[in-house]
Fold this protein.
Amino acid sequence: MEYKVEAHRIMSISLGKIYNSRVQRGGIKLHKNLLVSLVLRSARQVYLRDYYGGICLSAQQAREWCEGEYMDSEQDKLVPGSTESLPESDGQSEVAVDKQEPSNVVESHAALDVESEASGEQDHAENGVLDSGCSELKTPEESPEASPTCEVSNVENLHEPIVPHTCTNRKRSADDSELTDSLPKKTKVMSSTLISKNDEKKAETEEMDTSNVSSLITIFGSSFSGLLSSEDGAQPDSEAEDSDSGQICCDQMLKNLNPWSTAIVAF
Amino acid sequence: MAGVGGGNDFQWCFSQVKGAIDEDVAEADIISTVEFNYSGELLATGDKGGRVVIFQREQESKNRPHSRGEYNVYSTFQSHEPEFDYLKSLEIEEKINKIRWLPQQNAAHSLLSTNDKTIKLWKISQRDKRAEGYNLKDEDGRLRDPFRITSLRVPVLLPMDRMVEASPRRIFANAHTYHINSISVNSDHETYLSADDLRVNLWHLEITDRSFNIVDIKPANMEELTEVITAAECHPHQCNVFVYSSSKGTIRLCDMRAAALCDRQSKFFEEPEDPSSRSFFSEIISSISDVKFSHSGRYMMTRDYLSVKVWDLNMENRPVETYQVHEYLRSKLCSLYENDCIFDKFECCWNGADSAIMTGSYNNFFRMFDRNTRRDITLEASRENSKPRAILKARKVSTGGKRKKDEISVDSLDFNKKILHTAWHPKENVIAVAATNNLYIFQDKIN
């Protein structure tokens, strides 16, 4: 949890340094900028680790977030076959939340390696989601993760993108476990797929602290209501229940996403 | 308190301090390089304003047998001026990055000074006699009418006030696209190398319009750049050997006899990273900021952010000695990253006998390590300890929860007071420590 906040903060600072270096006297210092970019990359990796694990992107969302950069034809394959079981407020019709999603999800190495507890699948999901724990402040802050959306393109392979689930997962570890309870398979699909697609994420999933899992599982028992109650979703103790709230947090992320991705890509 | 440096127990004393006392430090006055010449008689400093100040040691006087000669200003000149690169719309800083003395070959002294882009060879000569009694011209220089000369006389040399002149004899320009970080005079006394972030060039001291590129690590696609050159030095005795360090914490030793382009190293020095200490900033703190051969040529020393390592040139897989400079900063790396201190490039130096090494730290602290006794000491360069021949007291930074008396806690350290540049007299226990805009000179106590 703390890692993510820290990672995000370091990313912001790094971007600031890179920006300032352009106006510094004497020209751009190659050495310093190289080091800053290495830190930026490391922070980004840590930040994304949870982001991908927890994120649940609909095909449409992923497309939007990536500004078309990362989408490919595979996107079309994402068919929201199952009907939503959770109410979706923003008309993300493509989001298919199928609670009965069988666990025939993509078998990621990470998912397999992760210890499973009460609900084995959800463990996988959680681990993928909450490796460093979700911090309260996630929703708006995570939007800067726009650049990672290039890897989000892996979402294409998601069988069932789970928006609310993701948001919730990202937001708080406690809630995630609860979510997993309710949507164990989807989460697993989500995270598993993402993880399997991304070697980095896979490696990191394996490192996940399984001690988080048990707490996650208990937390997952609660609902999404907390998501709705706070603007930025920064309510660690509140419980996320609604897919609506999940949707909201995704929207917020979406809004913040574009400027960041633009900034990163531009540099 | 036992000192470090000569192998025996001795103590460091304050000798002199040069520079303004004002709290308000002009950026141009910040010292950016310090270097003794080969004999130790001269001490040169460069600053951010592009000026070079040379101090000369006075002869030891009988009046004051307790102190060795003092260093007084010998010459001051403006070496580099700010320039503007119109093509790239970049300002080129006048800050002197490095000064290296050339071996003295005649009465004049020569040194190389460099900023980010241009290296200059300066000749410093002094006149303390003038001729009087010319036949063909008057005392004021006017030519005399030859027909009016009735007798001849031999001009005589009379003493005059010493006049020191510095003149740029060579300007080595336009050879570096990136910022020059090092220059090093070769042991053949004819060539020298200059290194920027991606390339190392070899020059002849007499030829300014050409240089040989001997190392080029620029990738074809700059997006694939993963490391840069941070320092380079010629071997003190083998004129075909040089080393360069990288931002990844590696050192490459190259032999110029092997190939014209020394991209393939002869030796590769790298210590495996300790995976348990990985953090966001592992890469930054492993970047080497300085590399120095020992006087013997058998060892080399590298400085990274938290430590100094001594390498045996015959062993590539790990250093033979590692000294922690300020390990207590390891937990503060994030703050140091925010305030840019983590990018500070500390230098390091050997004593004449290669038995001790010195490097700087924060809060105007500097550290010395005795390689034989393995003792280390932390000293402070401050105006408070500036009484003549005052013995420097050892300082200590408290790392635990309990702070003992006289210790300073990590949070109280002043990170704006950093000692990046230090120099050790080649033969004696005299050291020069640059603390922002002040130059401190310390020497061992003579009994």
Observations:
- Residues 218 and 425 of chain B are 37 Å apart (CA to CA).
- The interface with chain A takes residues 85, 88, 90-93, 95, 116, 178-179, 181, 197-198, 225-228, 230, 247, 280-281, 283-284, 287, 334, 337-338, 340, 343 of chain B (CB under 8 Å).
